[in-house]
Specification:
This protein is an alpha/beta fold. It has a single domain (2-197), classed as 3-Layer(aba) Sandwich (Rossmann fold). The protein contains seven helices and four strands, in the order βαβααβαβααα. The chain has a four-stranded parallel sheet with strand order 2-1-3-4, sandwiched between helices. Helix 1 (13-27) runs parallel beside helix 2 and helix 5 (107-118) packs parallel to helix 7 (170-191). 46% of the residues are buried.
Amino acid sequence: MNVLVVCTGNVCRSPVAEQLLAARLDAAGFDDVRVSSAGTRALAGSPMTPQAADLSRRYGVDPGDHVARQLTEQLALEADLVLTATRAQRAEVAELVPRAARRTYTLREFARVLHFLASDDALEAPETLGTGAGSRMQRAADAASRSRGLAPPPSDPNDDDILDPYRASHAVYDEAGRLIDDAVDAVVTALAAPSVSGGRGGS
């Protein structure tokens, strides 16, 4: 399964989220899931900013030799799940590839919907999960797509966004890092709940 994480420049938020999500999914046994990233207006060819690389290290992952790349129609088409930093970027993905809209969320929105699924007793039993971590991740994404309109919305729509720290203070980087860490942790924790991959009826 291919997961694509998207922000603007692909030098701050999306590479940090990509690295944290990949490492934690792997640690949780989701070794058939590939995570990559891109930017809607990427600083193509650039490395992560030093502050963003420091965030990755702080949260226990190696930033490696990340190189920013531009979001393309092909990347969006190849992704089974697209996670963006903001609602505006979610809309840009949908405009670029309209059929990708149903599988595109902000990272915090996806965490919120999975939390709803994990806490809902009406979901199917664990024995319906199928085999393999990749299969489980796909089932979770499919369940989220069917249930996203049923999950309680945030009290403030901005709560589905991650602020942009590019050229901002260390405090803004710290806050962006905290939001990414919290969302990634919530996603992986929810995926560990058997009910998330079971699915729900409805449109």
